[in-house]
């Protein structure tokens, strides 16, 4: 029996579809480049000329400004996506001719290159119409914009034809598309709420934007904010505070105590373990402000502080304001009691999922409870340990809510201030009389970069590739 082929031979109709797709992509690319230099918008009222795409000034978005008998359209850098789409279309067609074959990914690239700029320009034109309507001007499209729209639609149609033709010849590619379609909602959320904000954060960190110059065009100042950040005399202290806070809270509470609680509650009566876990969940479900007010009441001076009341009953005369006396102890306790509950639930679920036969067999062989935990339970918790450690590390890196409510980074100057709190104060807090959004963005972007690096390290250390590979089944 002959081995199955990877793909069916290209039919005449398929060859025709490929040629039509190539032609649409080439025509669309040329039309896009031509339309980029033609008049884009016109207006009714005899007030003057509006800029072409190529003449659009780089600004903070589509804005209509009235000059002396002139209407000026100030575009955004995204207008140049038209040129990028045209270049991508030319490259895809050129590489396809050189390879003498077309792949499905070429079609997906053309679909993206045609659709994304089309949506962006459509949004820009709508924003221009709204702004013009506020001053009584009617904006209408000119042939330049119409030509660009048609060009991008041609590139998009070429991509559809290529994907359709290739998926007919390759069922495996069609299955791959189905898998990507299944993941597309999650991918969209990651793109919108993580990747795009990270890019905007990086761009913002290269400017001098603050509340002092808000409303003016952005001034790009390069890496000045980063130079200012690394030369800050309190930078080493803030970095040290962050490392100490993350490592200590993670080791002793978010992973360490969580694992101990899970092991303890998994080896006691089921009803008692449920009640015990419920108690540990109370700090997490308590509103943040109420939770911090309780801790502040614990640490107050006599006669209000609960700790000092117990100290007085024991005859201890030294009764200070404990939040000033040992701020780091309470910062770690406050965050640790909340973080331990999350890991406890994850580890408990993983322990309950361990096959009972393994534990029973070990006990029959004479293994003690500690030996069962060491040789069976802990090795089976490798994946939950990776997840909790990675998640809680990233969570601690960006968390500052409880520190802000408890100590505001004090007492004193930067005593308990961590990186995320510093970024918040620079960007969104009235810091030295103004909100320094760009400077705060630089702090935030470095924090994102640190989080990505730590995630990669964790995946390497825990050998993530081995954890997710399919189990091998022996065929008898």
Structure at a glance:
By secondary structure, the protein is mostly helical. It has helices at residues 12-35, 81-99, 104-134, 143-169, 171-205, 224-230, 235-265, 270-285, 288-299, 306-313, 322-325, 327-352, 356-364, 369-380, 382-398, 401-406, 419-428, 437-461, 464-468; strands at 41-44, 63-66, 71-74, 138-141. The chain has 19 helices and 4 strands.
Radius of gyration: 31 Å
The CATH class designation of the largest domain is Mainly Alpha
| Approximate shape | flat
Major sheet: arrangement of strands:
1-4
Largest sheet: 2 strands, antiparallel
Please give the alpha-carbon distance between the first and last residues.
Answer: 23 Å
What is the quaternary state of this protein? single chain
* Mean pLDDT value: 80
- CATH H level of the largest domain: which superfamily? MetI-like
Helix vs. strand class: mainly alpha
Number of strands: 4
Strand composition percent: under 5%
> What is the succession of H and E elements?
HEEEHHEHHHHHHHHHHHHHHHH
CATH topology name of the largest domain: MetI-like fold
**DSSP helix count?**
19
Structural domain count: 2
Description:
By secondary structure, this protein is mostly helical. It has 19 helices and four strands. It is flat. It starts with 11 loop residues before the first helix and ends in an 8-residue tail after the last helix.
């Amino acid at each position: 029996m002959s081995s199955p082929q990877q793909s069916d031979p290209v039919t005449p109709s398929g060859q025709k579809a490929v040629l039509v797709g190539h032609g649409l992509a080439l025509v669309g690319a040329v039309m896009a480049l031509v339309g980029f230099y033609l008049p884009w918008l016109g207006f009714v009222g005899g007030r003057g000329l509006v800029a072409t795409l190529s003449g659009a000034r780089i600004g903070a978005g589509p804005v209509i400004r009235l000059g002396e008998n002139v209407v000026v359209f100030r575009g955004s850098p995204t207008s140049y996506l038209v040129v990028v789409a045209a270049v991508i279309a030319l490259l895809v067609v050129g590489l396809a001719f050189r390879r003498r074959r077309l792949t499905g990914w070429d079609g997906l690239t053309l679909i993206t290159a045609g659709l994304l700029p089309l949506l962006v320009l459509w949004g820009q034109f709508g924003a221009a119409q709204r702004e013009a309507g506020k001053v009584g001007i009617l904006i209408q499209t000119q042939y330049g914009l119409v030509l660009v729209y048609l060009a991008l639609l041609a590139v998009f149609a070429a991509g559809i034809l290529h994907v359709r033709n290739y998926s007919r010849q390759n069922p495996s590619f069609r299955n791959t598309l189905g898998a990507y379609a299944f993941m597309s909602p999650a991918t969209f959320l990651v793109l919108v709420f993580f990747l795009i904000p990270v890019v905007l954060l990086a761009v913002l960190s290269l400017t001098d934007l603050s509340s002092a110059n808000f409303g003016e065009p952005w001034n790009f100042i390069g890496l000045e904010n980063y130079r200012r950040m690394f030369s800050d005399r309190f930078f080493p202290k803030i970095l040290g505070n962050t490392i100490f806070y993350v490592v200590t809270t993670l080791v002793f509470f978010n992973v360490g105590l969580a694992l101990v609680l899970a092991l303890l509650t998994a080896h006691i009566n089921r009803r008692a373990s449920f009640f015990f876990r419920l108690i540990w969940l109370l700090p997490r479900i308590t509103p943040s402000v109420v939770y911090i007010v309780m801790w502040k009441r614990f640490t107050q001076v006599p006669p209000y502080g609960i700790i000092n009341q117990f100290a007085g009953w024991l005859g201890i005369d030294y009764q200070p304001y404990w939040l000033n006396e040992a701020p780091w102890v309470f910062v770690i306790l406050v965050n640790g009691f909340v973080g331990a509950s999350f890991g406890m639930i994850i580890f408990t679920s993983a322990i309950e999922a361990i096959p009972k036969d393994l534990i029973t067999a070990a006990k029959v062989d004479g293994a003690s409870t500690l030996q069962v935990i060491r040789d069976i339970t802990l090795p089976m918790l490798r994946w939950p340990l990776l997840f909790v450690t990675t998640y809680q590390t990233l969570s601690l890196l960006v968390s500052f809510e409880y520190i802000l409510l408890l100590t505001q980074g004090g007492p004193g100057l930067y005593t308990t201030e961590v990186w995320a709190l510093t970024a918040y104060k620079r960007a969104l807090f009235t810091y030295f009389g103004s909100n320094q959004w760009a400077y705060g963005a630089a702090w935030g972007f470095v924090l994102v970069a640190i989080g990505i690096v730590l995630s990669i390290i964790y995946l390497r250390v825990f050998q993530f590739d081995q954890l997710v590979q399919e189990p091998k089944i022996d065929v008898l």
